[in-house]
Amino acid sequence: MNDNGNSAEIGMVGLADFESEVLKSPVPVLAAFGAAWSRPCHLVESVLNEVATACSGRVKVVKVDADDNPDLSLCYEIESIPTLLCFVGGQVRARVVGTASKEAILAKLQSVFDGAG
What we know:
By secondary structure, this protein is of the alpha/beta class.
């Protein structure tokens, strides 16, 4: 997880492209479930941008609107937002519920990678 200074784009995914963009991704994916009306989701957005930049090329960061994708929210047991799910090989390997710092999210991701190694 090195900060190379390049900004990484965070895309929106939904039910139609979740399988191709997340489950079948060749790189790990951090999917942030949230909603436009949620203040905590707005607070974590800048942190997600920092995480995406720090992990550019190693981890794809995407956002999922929980309101627009109730089936995905139900499938992955999203009970509060924001909820961040780390997918590796199509499987959920880590979950962060609520707001978290960049360092906390990177540490969680690192623990997933260390465990998978």
